[in-house]
Amino acid sequence: MVCSPIDESLAFFRRPLRSEPPELWLYDPVSNTERKLTDGLPYRWTNDGVLCYQPWATDQLVGVRPEQLDKPIWTHSRALGPDQLTALSCDGKRYGRVSYGKWSFVDLQQDVELPSGRHHKSDYGRADWSADGRWIAHSTHIDDEYGVWLIDTHTGYAFVS
Q1: What pLDDT shows up at residue 113?
Q2: Is residue 123 within 8 Å of 142, Cβ to Cβ?
Q3: Residues 117-130: what's their mean pLDDT?
C-alpha cells in the first residue's frame, strides 16, 4: 500500500486468485470508495501526485495521474526485471537498481544510465529513496543476519548500519 502525498488516497493491489494478475486499486478514505485502476503493482507516488506502477507481465515502469490512466506521463523500460531490487526517487526523475550486488542509477527524463554504484553483498530485500534524494535505504538479509545498507546516490558507496 502506498499513500498519495497530495491527498488521502491510497494505492494498493489485490490478487483475486493466484492464477490471475494483481490488480492496482485506489482507495479514497474521504468518500470511502475504491476503484480498480489497472492490472499491475503499485510502486510509489511522486511528490507531485504521479502514481508509478509496473503493468502486469511487463518490464516497464509507468507514471500516471489516477484521473487520466489512458495518458501516461512517462513510460520507462530500461530492464526492470522482476528479480531486480529497485527504488524510485520521490521526484520521479531517477531510479536506482541493484543487480548482482552493484547499484546503478537511471535518469528517467533523459533516459540514460548514470555512473554505476559500488558492489555490496545482496540484491534482495526492500529499498526506498530518501526525500532529499541523497540516499537509498536498503534492508536485506544476508547469511542469517538482518541489516540496512545506505547507498549514497551521488557516489554509489554503500554503508552498513
Answers
A1: 73
A2: no
A3: 65
- Full-model pTM: 0.70
pLDDT attached to residue 30: 92
67-107 pLDDT, tens digit per residue, is 888 888 888 776 555 556 677 888 888 877 776 667 777 78
Which of 114, 117, 109, 110 lies closest to 136 in space, CA to CA? 117
**Grid coordinates of 67:** 484521473
Among residues 32, 67, 102, the one where a domain terminates is: 67
Asked whether residue 144 carries a pLDDT value surpassing 70, the answer given is no
Which grid coordinates belong to 122?
A: 545482496
Rounded Cα–Cα distance for residues 149 and 123 (Å): 11
The residues, ordered by sequence, that sit 6+ positions from 11 with a Cβ below 8 Å of its Cβ are 1, 2, 4, 24, 25, 26, 27, 37, 42, 45, 51, 53, 66
| Radius of gyration of the CA atoms of the chain, in A | 16
> Same domain for 83 and 60?
no
Same domain, residue pair 83 and 63: no
